[in-house]
Every structure is written in structure tokens, then in C-alpha cells.
Amino acid sequence: MTKHQSWSVDRIPDQAGRVFVVTGANSGLGLETTRAIVRSGGHVILAVRDEAKGRAAAERVGGSTEVRRVDLADLASVRAFAEGVRAEHGRVDVLVNNAGVFAPPRTLSPQGHELQFAANHLGHFALTGLLLDLLAAGEDPRVVTVSSINHRQGRLDFEDLGGERRYSPMGHYNQSKLANAVFGVQLHRRLVAAGSPVRSLLAHPGYAATNIQTSATGGLLKFLFGRLLIPLAQGAERGALPQLFAATAPEARGGEFIGPGGPGELRGAPAVVKLAPRAAEEEVGRRLWEVSERLTEVRYGLPVG
Predict the structure, then answer these.
(1) Is 18 within 8 Å of 44 (Cβ atoms)?
(2) How confident is the model over 37-62, as a mean pLDDT?
(3) Cα 54 vs. chain centroid, distance in angstroms?
(4) Strands 2-3 and 270-272, how do they pair?
(5) Distance CA 71, CA 23 (A)
(6) Which residues form the domain of 249?
(7) Dist. CA 90–CA 68, nearest whole Å
(8) Among 76, 92, 103, 281, fewest CB within 10 Å belongs to which?
(9) Segment 29-35 mean pLDDT
(10) What are phi and psi of 37, to 5 degrees?
(11) Active-site residue set
(12) In the predicted model, what is the mean pLDDT of residues 252-279?
């Protein structure tokens, strides 16, 4: 494990003139990521579902920001967001796929996909593909996809991705976080094979106290994550460090998975951590990519890595 024990937001290089898209930027890890980037001189497009909350967050952060609405569970909204960014910006330097939905009852997206798989994976898959040419025009361009420790408990059930036969709020959350990890690895392989300047990295926050912890609707889950375990969590500002490192540190490398370097990867300074072996399986990656292209109707045109 390569640890970066002294790394903090004070180590972020000057980001003046650089354009960042951060999903879920109005609260939690996304807000702390936005705050740190703006303080470093970058321009952040806050990609948020609730524009009023996004504007309030932008006012608190100050600096160079803009607020744009996107519902990552709705592929039509993702396309509209990407078109809006394209109309105003000739390039995007960094995309941080941060937003997430945590353990709701089984719910379907407007396109009929299970909500967690739709918002956590499919929306980010589509958004990345739709912005890829703008990223390729960027300076030191990166895609940072935020996964979770829980990806190690995830299973991709390709015969029942939507939970029609059996649904578990936590099980399908874990599945979506594994999908994030598989996507990040596959994207890295394909970008390298294409000779693209864009780098794909993965990050996870460890156990961080954010509002996603209290968003679970099940009574037991809400008590467990929203109350009982919260005293063990690190703050959102610390939880955001791995994704900030992945997004800005000159020493970060494509294909790396950055998480907290402390015991159990629950807290601590950013470090290169290990993926679950299944996240790097080529056949799993190929199959998820094909399914994702079919479900989103977004095709990257990248060679298989």
C-alpha cells in the first residue's frame, strides 16, 4: 500500500483555468470536493438534482462555480446536462463521478432500471461517455469514479441486475459500487488501448459522516448507519481526500484505486489500495460494458483493453 500520509488539501496544485464537473456537489463529499477545488482556483460545475440546494452550496463555497441540474437516474436528464455543458465549455479537465443513492426500497428509474444501479452506475457511465471528447480536449484530463469499501461485498447478477427476482437494499447498493469499480478499471484499460490522454481513477472515502448515511429508508439501516456507527466515521472533509488526490495530485496514476490508508481503510490519509479481484476480471468488465452501452444507448467507440 502506497501511503501519502502528509497529503492534504493544502497540497493541491494551482487549478486556475481548469474546469471540473462534480456530481452530487451540493452536500457531503461532493461539497467538500467542490470547496477544495474552488479554493485552489478551479472552476466547478456543480451537477446537482436540486438546483436550489446547488445554488445555496455555491454561495457558501464562493469562487468560480456554476450550477446545473442533472438527475443521474434519468438518462434523458443526463443527456440534457451534457448538452448544456457542451454549449458553454469547449473542454472539461476533470469529471468526478461522486453522487450516489443509498439503500432505498426497490424503485425504478424513468427508464425502468433499478434506482441504485441507474443513479450510481448507469448515469455516470452515460455522463462520462457523453463528455469524453470534452475531457480529451482538457489539460491533464481525468475521470474519478467514487466507489466504496462495499464493492468488495458486491456481486453483479447479470441475470437479475434490477432485482426483479430478489431485491436487497444493501445488496443492490453493493452491486452498484462494484459496478463503479468495474467501470473505472474497464475505462482505464480502454483509454490506454486508444492512446487517449484521459486517465481513469477510482476512489473511496472510507467511512465518512455524510447525509448519504441517513438517507437509507429501512429502520435498521437508518439506525445502524445514521446513528449507531456515526461516531466512528471521519468527517466529510477527510472523506473527500482520496477523490481530491485522484483528481488533482500530479503523482496519481491512471488505473489506481485511492482510499484512506488507515486500518480497514475506514479513515486516514490517501493511499493506493487494492480492488476486489472480481472488479478487475476482464470478462466481468466486458459484460458490464456491453450491458451499460445497451441500457444507456451511449457508445464510447473505445477499443477493448
Answers:
(1) no
(2) 98
(3) 17
(4) antiparallel
(5) 10
(6) 8-296
(7) 16
(8) 76
(9) 98
(10) -70, -45
(11) 173
(12) 95
Q: How far apart are CA 42 and CA 152, in angstroms?
A: 33
Q: Please write the tens of the pLDDT for every residue from 71-128.
A: 999 999 999 999 999 999 999 999 999 999 999 999 999 999 999 999 999 999 999 9
Domain contains 303: no
Question: 133: closest CA among 194, 175, 73, 184?
Answer: 194
| Cβ pair 113, 295 in contact under 8 A | yes
| 133-187 pLDDT per residue, tens | 999 999 999 999 999 999 999 999 999 999 999 999 999 999 999 999 999 999 9
- Res 259: pLDDT: 97
Residue 1: inside a domain: no
Question: Which amino acid, 138?
Answer: G
Sign for the CA dihedral angle at 81, 71, 23, 172 comes to: negative
Question: Contact 170/240 with Cβ under 8 angstroms?
Answer: no
Q: Which residues contact 241 (CB under 8 A, 6 or more apart)?
A: 7, 8, 9, 260, 269, 270
- Calculate the average pLDDT of the chain: 93
Residue type, 156: L
Residue whose C-alpha cell reads 443526463 in the numeric block: 78
Which among 260, 279, 153, 273 is positioned nearest to 206, based on CA atoms? 260
Residue 199 lies in a domain: yes
Residue 162 belongs to domain with CATH number: 3.40.50.720
Look at residue 301 and tell me if it is in a domain.
Answer: no
